[in-house]
Every structure is written in C-alpha cells, then in structure tokens.
Amino acid sequence: EQAFKEFRNKNQYSTAHLTHTINKRPEECIELLRLYMGVAMDRLYVEHIHNDTVKKQVEDIVERLKKELNDTIHEADWINETVKTEMSEKLRNTTVVIGHPETLLNQTVLEELYEDIPTIETSTSFLEIFKILYEHNYRWKFQIHLEPFRGRKLWSPSDSEDKFLYSETNQQVEIPWALLQPPFYEDGLPRSLGYGALGAKIAQGLIGAIDIKPIITSAFGKKDAKRGNINNSEIDNKTDCFLEQYGQDSSYRTWVPPYTKHIEKLQGNIIDNAGLQLAFKAYTKVLGEDCNGTDTRLEGLPDISGNELFFIAHGMILCKAMSTQDDMLWNWPPGWDDTRSENWERVNMPVTNIKAFSTAFNCSEDSKMFYKPTESCTFLISPGGQTYSGALD
Asked: Locate the Peptidase M13 N-terminal domain: which residues (predicted)?
C-alpha cells in the first residue's frame, strides 16, 4: 500500500504546478526518479505488492469477459458474418497480460538497461544524478525503437501507473499491477466490486481491441469495402442516439473531413457504454451460474445489493473531488482535450442505459437517472441482453 501511494500517482508533480502549490522536496525527488528511472522503481513496486492469487482472479475475469464479448458479437444481428468473423479473430488473437513483464524481475535485464550509467558516489548531488539519468533516458528512448515490437522486454505503461494500454502492433492489452489495487480491485471483496471497477476497464480495452471504429465511421459516409453489408440504418440510429445523449453535434453527417476528434469522442462514449454493459452482463452471469443468483454483501452494509456495489465501484474509479479553481485549471484551455467526455458524463451516462441501475437504486420516473427504453443507447449489446437471464434483475 505504501509503494502504491508513493509511486502510482503520475499526475502529482504536474498537478502541483497547475494549482500553484509546492510539493515537499522528497516527493518531487521521487517523482523525478520515477520519470527517469521508472523501470527500477517499478521493480521495487512490483516486489512489494506482487500477489499470485489476485493475478489468477483477474485472469478468470478476463476469460469470462472475452467469452461474453465473443458471444455478444455473434448475437448482433445488424452486423454481417464477414465482420463478425473479423472481430472474433481479432479478439481471439488479442492477449491480455497482467501484472508485469517477467523480465522486470530479471536482474540481468535490469543491469543491461542501466549499463551506461556510471557508478554514482554517495556524495554526488541530486542535480548531477538527475543529469546522468536524463541523458540515459534520452538514449534509451532512441534505442527502444531499434528493438522488435513483438516480444519486447518491457511494457509501454509503467507498472505503477493506474492505466492499461492496448498495443495494436502486438495485439496485446497490458494491465499493470497498479490496476490490481484499490479502488480497481482487492482480494476478498465481493465480485460485484471487481467487475464494476476493473472488469469494466478490461471490457472497454477488449472492445477497443476488436476495432469498432470502421463501423462507426460508416455513419460519416466513409464506407469500408469489407464492411459494406452492415446495416447502415441501424448504425445511424445507434450513433444518433449517443450523439444526442451526450449533447454532441448531431449534424455529423455534414461534417467536413478531417473529423477525427468527433469520431474519437463518439467512439470513446460508445466504448464506455459497451464496456460497462459487457462487464455487467458477465457479472450477472457469474451470479447466476456460480452463486445461484445470490449476491455477496459487504460486511456491515447488508442492505446494499451486489448490483448497487457494481455501479458504485464503476463510479469510484472515475469520480474526482475538485474545487472550482482546480476544475478551471485542470480544464484550461477550454477544449484542450475534447476527444473525451468529462468524467461526470462518463460516470452518469452509461448507467442510464442499463435498466438494472434504475431498478437497483429505485430511481423515480422524474429522475434523470431513470431508465427509459425509448431513450437508452446501446451498441453491441441489445437492451434485453444486458442481464444474464439466470441472475437477479
């Protein structure tokens, strides 16, 4: 836990400058070392929190999600068989690696990585050390481009960063150890929490891996020969629904290329929704098949159902507490990252498209969170297929 607190927050240093606050010197030094000697610090981090039990549990979640996604692809009657086969093939060839590359704990690999760094005496100043590491890091960035991408020794994200990365070249989703910690996952807690937090993120990564972008762009008049038999009217209806729900410009069919930002934002919103729906469907299937429809409650909170815990966990990984000043600084200049919806939208919008959320929290009909079938948006999973039939609604 201590290693998690010290090393995982990659935004600590930059946020301090945005809010004009001054971090304590040790914290700044740690952050600079993490930036320029990240692999060594990842090694310390992984040695501190490695847990084989958690890794096996997450591997089980991954396999269940992949199976559920594959079934969902073949259940989508608006996608032709050619595209379904193509998506299934991409999913089958996509590997999900969890934790850290095995080479991270290999002392020989670690020594080779830093072999150009001279022996540093204890009397050396931090500024001198920083200069040495900076030069090493600069050389290393050029060297990694010379290595083959497939089977590379180190992953792209740091093992102490709470994000995953999909490598299209390797067809690989990488989940570092930081995502196997709270609030994303914790051993011994109900499955609802794990599926709602980490499960949803993994599901989003898998959906990104099967490449839905060509399908989305067909609504913009960009036709793909391989996907020519897709029901375009159905795609238009689905994209229109998400654009209207998120308040995005609905006149997208008249957009003049390049419209990359518009497509990326739409794609991100669709993946957020489809990922959460897929994770919820997988969770309810586990509940129905493995637990006879009986969910596990948290000790001391017996009145909070598994479905409620699922959606709470999902919200926790995206929610932020910010003052008005922090919010202004974080989003300055306006539109600096308009390819993603704001976090409050990413939390609230997807759950309004799942009937079980409205049921679990007893939303009133006049609430914005109340499920309205005629206004709900889905992409891969049909509204009637969001919950496994053997589970509780």
From this structure: 5-101
